[in-house]
Amino acid sequence: MTPAERKAITITGLTKAFDKLVAVDRIDLDIGEGEFFGLLGPNGAGKTTLIRMLVGLCVPTAGKATILGRDIVSDPYGARELVGVVPQDFNFDDNLTARDILTYHGGYFGMQRREREERADELLAFLEIKEKANTTCTKLSGGMKRRLLIGRALMTRPQVLFLDEPTTGVDVQLRHSLWDMFRKMKGSGTTIILTTHYIEEAESLCDRVAIMDYGKIIALGSPDELKKTSGSGNLIEIVITGAHAIPDLKTIPEVVRVWWKDGTLSARVTDADIAAIKILDRLRTANVAVRSMHVTKASLEDVFLKLTGRELRE
Amino acid sequence: MTKREIIRFARKPNRTVLPSIVSTFLYIFAFGYALGSTIPAMGGHSYIEFMLPGLVMMQAIIHAYINPSYSIFQSRDTGYIEDPLTTPMRYSSMVVAYILGGMVRGLFMGFVIAGVTMLIFGFWLADPILFLLFLVFTSATFAAIGVMFGQWSSNIEDVGNVMSYVLSPLLFIGGVFFSIDMIPSDIVRTLSYLDPLTYVIDGFRFAMIGYLRTDPYLCLLAIVISFCVCFYAAIRLFESGYHLKT
Which helix (H) or strand (E) holds B138? Predict the structure, then answer.
C-alpha cells in the first residue's frame, strides 16, 4: 500500500447541526497520507466547521472520523497529538513574544525544553522572522503574524496539517511565498488539508479538491478531473478568414458543442489542449485558413457555478 | 502553561499587582493607622494588627480569582484558547495550570503585603505553617472559582461583577475589618456565620497574629474541602467544553 492509499483521515457520516442549521451534513470522505487536499466553497459552506470538528473545537452531532486511525471523539487527545492547526484569524497571546509563541506551543505537546528551543530557532529562520524572535506579537506586521501562525502549527512536525484559509487577506507576493512553503511541507510527506475560497490556490496546490456547499460535498476529484467532468467549461474560439466549408468537428470526442457566428467558430470542449490540436488538424486538412485562435480554459469557479448556479465569492 | 499564567501578571506588574499593593497600604493608613487609633484593642491586639490578616487574605483571594478568570475570558475573546485546546494537553492539566497561575499570584500578594506590614509594625507570624497552608488552599480555591467564572461569563463585565456582587460582600461580612462579634444586628451576624470566608479569615488571623476565635484546624479543613469541591467542579465544567467548543 502506498502512502497515498493509506488513509490519513477517514470521515463517515459526519454531521454538525446548530439548532435548525445543519452546518455539515452527513459527510463521507477519505484523505490519503501525504495528500494535499482542498476544501473549496463559499463562506458558510461548512468547511471551517468540518475542520473544527476534526481538531476538537466542535463536537459532532453525528458520525465518526479518525485521524491516522485515532477516533476524534473516543480518543481526542490521541488524535490531536498528530495534528497542526493554522486557524483563519490571528489568535496569539498578546503577552508573548514570537519565540514564546512557538516554544509554549511545543510545551503544550510535551516537547522538552532544548528540543523546543532548537525547533523554534529553526522555524524562525525558515519563516524569515528570526530578527523578530523577541518582539511581542502585537508589534509584528500582518505578514509576519501569518508566518508565525504557520510556524506555530509546524512546531511539532505534525503528520496532518490543517490550513484554514491561510492566505486570506495577504498580498500576492506573500501568498506565493506561502504556497512555496506549503509545497515544501507536502514534499516532506505531511498530509495537508486546506480550506480556501481562492480558486487559484486550490488549483495550484491540491492533489484533490472537494467542493462544499450548504454542508455537503457536491463534487470531489483532482482539479483537472473536476474541470473535465463538469463537461463544457472550456471554450475554443477560432476566427476564420474567408468563407469555407467547415468540416464536421462534432465527431471529435472532446468536442461537446460547435457553433458558428460572425466569422468565429466556437466550440465547447472537455479537454482544451487535446481538442485544440484536433480541431486545428481538421481545419488544416479541409484547407480552412485560421486567422487566430483563443482558448479559455474552465476553472473550478466554472465547475462551482455549474454545480450550484452561484459564484464562489457571492 | 503555568509559566504563561505567571508571565501574564509578572511582565506587567504596574498593571496587575502594584495598584492593589498601593491601595492596600492606603487602607492600612486610613483604617488602621488613622481611624484605628480610636478603636480599642481586641484580644490584646491593636486594631491595625487585627485588620492586617483580613487585608492580606482579601488581596490573596481577589488576585487568585482575577488571574485565571481574566486569562480564560481574554483567551476565549481573542481565540487564543483554541491553541491549547487543539493540542493533546488534557483539559484537567489546563485547569491545574490556570489554578497554579492564580495561586502563585495570590501567594505573591499575600507574602508581599504580609511581609512589608510585619516589617513596618514589627511582629512575626504566630504559626507560619498554618499561615502558608491557609494562603495556599484559599488562593487555590478562589483560583478554581476564577477558572469557572472565566469560562462561564459571557462578557468581561460578568467577570468583574463577581468581585463586586459576590467576593466583596463575602469578604466584608466575613470580618476583614472587624470581628463579627461586634456586629449589632443578629441577622447580619447570622449571615456572617453562614459566610465561609468568616472561617477562612478567622483561621488565618490566628495563624498570623494568634487571635483565636474559631478552631483554626477546623477552618483549615473547611477550606481544604472547599478547594476539593471547587477543583472538581472546575475540571468538570472545563471538560464539558461550555463556551470553549461549539
Answer: helix B128-152
- In this structure, are residues A93 and B4 in contact, taking their beta carbons and an 8 Å threshold? yes
The range of the structural domain enclosing residue A45 comes to 7-227
Cβ of B12 and A95 within 8 Å?
yes
Cβ B86–A107 below 8 Å, yes or no? no
Which DSSP symbol is given to A263?
T
CA-angle at A188, arms to A183 and A190, nearest 5°:
80
Whether A81 and B88 lie within 8 Å, measured CB to CB:
yes
Domain boundary among A183, A202, A227: A227
Would you state the cell numbers that stand for residue B118, as one nine-digit string? 510585619
Determine if residue A262 is left, alpha or beta; phi over 0 gives left, psi from -120 to 50 gives alpha, anything else beta: left
Helix B91-121 with B18-27: angle, nearest 10 deg? 40
Q: What is the pLDDT along chain B (246 residues), one digit of tens a residue?
A: 888 888 888 888 878 788 888 888 887 777 767 776 777 767 777 778 888 888 899 999 999 999 999 999 999 999 999 999 999 999 999 999 999 999 999 999 999 999 988 888 888 888 999 999 999 999 999 999 999 999 999 999 998 898 888 888 888 888 877 777 777 777 878 888 888 888 899 899 999 888 788 888 998 999 999 999 999 999 999 999 999 988
Please return the burial class of A168, using the count of CB atoms within 10 Å of its CB with bins 0-12, 13-18 and 19+. Answer: middle
Residues A40 and A168 grouped into a single domain = yes
- Pick A87's closest partner by Cβ from B4, B12, B82: B82
- Cα(B241)–Cα(B235) distance, integer angstroms: 10
Number of domains in chain A: 2
Question: In terms of C-beta density within 10 A (0-12 exposed, 13-18 middle, 19 or more buried), how is residue B185 classed?
Answer: exposed
Same domain, A200 and A242: no
Which of B75, B86, B92 to mutate: most A Cβ within 10 Å?
A: B86
Contacts of A108 (CB under 8 A, 6+ apart): B1, B83, B84, B87, B88, B89
Residue pair A16/A47 in contact by the 8 Å Cβ criterion: no
The interface residues of chain B toward chain A in range 8-27, judged by CB-CB distance below 8 A, are 8, 11-12
Radius of gyration of chain B (CA): 18
Angle at which helices A113-126 and A142-154 pack, to 10 degrees? 140
Q: Are residues A275 and A217 in the same domain?
A: no
Q: Distance between CA B49 and CA A164 in Å, rounded?
A: 59
Interface test mutation site (partner B, options A57, A72, A149, max chain B beta carbons within 10 A): A57
Strands (E), A19-150: 21-32, 36-40, 62-67, 70-71, 83-86
Do A109 and A245 lie in a common domain? Answer: no
Closest CA to A41 of A298, A207, A217: A217
Among residues B86, B200, B184, B118, which one has the least CA distance to residue A161?
Answer: B86
Do A139 and A104 have their domain in common?
Answer: yes
